[in-house]
Amino acid sequence: MRLWVRAAAVRRRVVCLWLLLLVFALVGLALSDLFNQDRDHGHPNPNPGPPRRPLQRIPSAPDLEIIVNSWDPALELGVDVAALESLQEDQLLFVPSTQGTKSPLQGKGSYKVILPGVSKETAAPVPRTHSETGNEVQLQLRDKYTELELSAVQKFGLNEVISERISLHRRLPDVRHPGCLGEQYSESLPSSSVIICFHDEAWSKLLRTMHSVLDTAPKQYLQEVLLVDDLSTQGHLKSVLSEYVSHLDRVRLIRSTKRLGVGGCRSLGAARAAGEVLVFMDSHCECQKGWLEPLLERVAQDRTRVVSPIMDVIDWQTFQYNATQWPVRGVFDWRLDFHWESNLQLKPKDADSAVLPLKSPVLGGGVVAIDRHFYHSVGGYDPGMLLWGGEQIELSIRVWSCGGSMEVVPCSRVAHLDHHHLPYRFPDQEILQRNKIRIADTWMDAYRKIFYRRDTLAHFIRQSESPNITERLHLKRSLGCRNFHWYLTTVYPQLYIPQDRPALSGELYNVGMGSCADLPRVQGLQGAVMNVAPCSGTGSQHCDLNSDSEVRWGPMGALCLDREGERVVMSPCPKQRPTSSGHQWKFIKLSGQLVHQQSQLCMEAVKEVEIPQSSTGGLFLRTCSHHPRQQWHFEQLVAPKSAR
Do the bridges between strand 593-596 and strand 585-588 make them parallel or antiparallel, or are there none, so unpaired? Predict the structure, then answer.
């Protein structure tokens, strides 16, 4: 009996000892947390959330759902797959948002800018000078940040030092036409999924894009924001970004284990999207208030309609906002390069033209909204397009040719940052030409010869290898798509169709100078002075003497050889057929003379020293003679029969 009592007493002492140790441990943890909060934050934060800048500490990862992505050898670009094994959850994952968690708000006041190579002692507090009205952001740079700015520009193609000093929630000035402010939209607009693909994007720019969408898109229409990581290599876009996104409502993160490029990355996001309308957005955009509703309204009225906002411009150096003047539309030239075309003439009698959408032959890739079912039925982005370049032109021609339409919506505005340069290098510098070859061979029919004469590198690549477009041609037939002649005559009749007659088109070579007629790129279109320069052999100096006696210049054929006094210049070609104007020329094959018909003078290449008070030479009209510098001939770099 005594032994049992003694054993019970011992057990009670042991239990009390364990309880006492547990109490001490809990008290220690509480004191430790309190100490760490005081040390790390210094000031109370009423809205705790993920950090603005990436931390060195790797937080615990949230629950992850693995996405299986098939490997396509056609898209393999030599990425070292073995190096991905150490990424763990960052290989190919999907991070769900934490429902009900408020978006992390940035505290006002000041914060420190600490970039690689700068110690904490030298990084001084930088006041945030964002204006709540958003009319202008004035930032004064200190001399010691000059090297940091250069480093950021080289790394990201933008001035990240300034970007870090601007609020993630800055408001852009409202420059919409007054008629847009009174527009009424349906209460039953479709839901949307905003898909933002990124590759090695600057931290502040990516977050500002995401928060700009969240701050301006009505919740009832924005179902989700999908961030799709196209195999970024920057450390701040790994686990720290996963942690940041996990605190945001309606934001999800998807990662790819291989480099997909713009089209493939957007297709991955589209496959995971749940919204009725897909809104593809570049990772360096800022949205104006009211940008989403006009796009959804247009798509809801016609599910085969693809729409874009007016794309305003953010300066990559100063991050200043610049509004684009309406009207504007997207076009391309015969080198298959995209341009925004402005200075269009709207019908003056139409009082609503400033708020009415405008049909566009192509749309840029900055922001594009398309019905999800129509996107998939029309074939999505071409999976054979590599990395970046031309995918928006291919999609635009296909949408128009296969039953859809495209337009710019003026009551929707989104600002886009054009990088100083691409923040990454192509593993193959000929990728862009290969993408263009796919477009030409799939959609341009016999007109592809015009493209190959103006991009000789693409021509020679095409001579040695053929793109595998069997699947796209099958899609073209199954959808009953119209041919390219229909597209040119119906959708884009403003594009001049060159004649490219033998011996009357190509590089305009001067015998006396051993160089070619050239138009410096730095000049404007009106009265641009012509010169001579080494023949490029790329097709960029291509010109075409047509049956109207015009010498058309450039990949768009919109500029004509003209005169300004005795100088030879380029000016916009007349819209009507010329009768007797300064744009008409006659080429005498026997002598090689190019005669200006109105003045009956010959074009001559003149050296710098022959022009008094001038530092440049150029092309001038002179009395016709047999001088070698008045002898010209057209060199057609790609023979008509060899352009396939």
Answer: antiparallel
Q: How many domains does the chain have?
A: 1
Please check whether residue 164 lies inside any domain of the structure.
no
Q: Which of 562, 554, 595 is nearest to 578 (CA)?
A: 562
- Cα within 13 Å of Cα(258), Cβ side: 18
CA contacts within 13 A on the Cβ side of 536? 17
Query: pTM higher than 0.85, yes or no?
Result: no
Give the length of the chain: 644
Could you give phi then psi for residue 28, rounded to 5 degrees? -65, -40
Within-domain flag for 545? yes
**How far lies 503's CA from each of 312, 336, 459, 508, 550, in Å?**
43, 24, 19, 10, 15
The domain that contains 534 carries what CATH number? 2.80.10.50
Model pLDDT for residues 169-223, shown as the tens digit of each residue:
999 999 999 999 988 898 899 999 999 999 988 899 999 999 999 999 999 999 9
Q: At what angle do helices 391-401 and 431-443 cross, to 10 degrees?
A: 10
Query: 468, 462 in Cβ contact below 8 A?
Result: no
Whether 623 is covered by a domain: the verdict is yes
Q: Is residue 541 part of a domain?
A: yes
Contact 347, 353 (CB under 8 A): yes
Find the domain containing 601 and state its range.
505-635
**CA dihedral of 463, 467, 468, 473, whole degrees rounded to 10:** -100
> Residue 583 carries which DSSP code?
T
Measured between alpha carbons, how far is 577 from 574 in angstroms, rounded to an integer?
7
